[in-house]
Write a structure and sequence with these properties.
It is built from twelve helices and 14 strands. With 373 residues, the protein is α+β, with helices and mostly antiparallel strands. α11 links the parallel β11 and β12 (338-341).
Length: 373
Amino acid sequence: MAITIQEVTTKKDLRRFARFPNELYRWNKYYVPQLVGADMDTLTREKNKAFEVCEGRYWLARNEKGTIVGRVAGIINHKYNDKTGIKYCRFGWIDFIESQEVVHALLSKVEEYAREKGMDIVEGPMGFLEFDVAGILVEGFDKLPTAYSKYNAPYYESLILNEGYTKVVDYVEYLVKIPKDLSRYEKFSKIVAERNNLREAPVKKRRDLLKYADGIFACLNRCYANIHGFSELSPAQCEDLKKQFLGQLVLDYVSVILDKNDKVVAFGICLPSLSLVLQKVKGHLFPFGFIEVLRALRHNDTVDALLIAIDDEYKDKGVNAMIASKIGAGFHKHGIKYLESTRELENNNSVQNMWSKLEHQLIKRARIYEKEV
């Protein structure tokens, strides 16, 4: 098969780039369509504040008939490289038909880009920031991904390994059954709050949450500082995330913990699962898809655990019980039966210890790879 690599330079080609996986997996019952418009915004310099610290290029692979058979992005996060002292080039947004020739052509282009920019290691799949989809699915092909992860076919890993890439780390996802009795969390949370002079932030409306938004992001930056792939979020990037997620939040699924000085020292955020509704609207919010999404935000039996962070000073002091008590009450109020963790690093023991105390099972695993260039 003769493969041609074409760089994405026009809005029309960027749309083709964003749509490709939806076309590749259109008959797969486990694939959750990506929101094409949202992906295009993420990949557009003028609309994504990540470009303050990142640069990137995108390519499409075409066969001899001109049909698109693969895609990939090459990304350099200069802030992360400065932090680690290692010259990484990331590959991301990678999808392809089952063909070694296609994978070789795509990854060779990223490696070429990395060498041009003086980078030493190509790593991925990763996005610009921690909040972009990362990893190749290697377990859980018979499960729906969350709206914040992505499905890929089982053949991806072997074809990537054949190009000389090796495992760096895995992300894991758990399905957790919500217990019917949360009284032990309620009792313990009161003890923890009194012992550590902490309290739950009074959040009844979205504008109340906005008062604590800067504190939440400051807490996130502190707690995630040493997580693989994370670079500190700038004020502009935080504003982007506020716009992206604030409208989706159900306040009963949000917990913000304050110390005696009203500083945010911990928080937890869950979101109603959107996987089934995104399948239904096939990746398009307009003209009527947004109505289905709004319905899913209000009527659901499953939530996705988006973020949890606890300052080092309060780790292992039971603060997670305060978060679980607040959000758990919301789960019972809305009839939530299951929580699905979004991708968390396999060595993130502090988060996984939370699930260990509940009925849970590991349902998905995604992998990051690297190669010296």
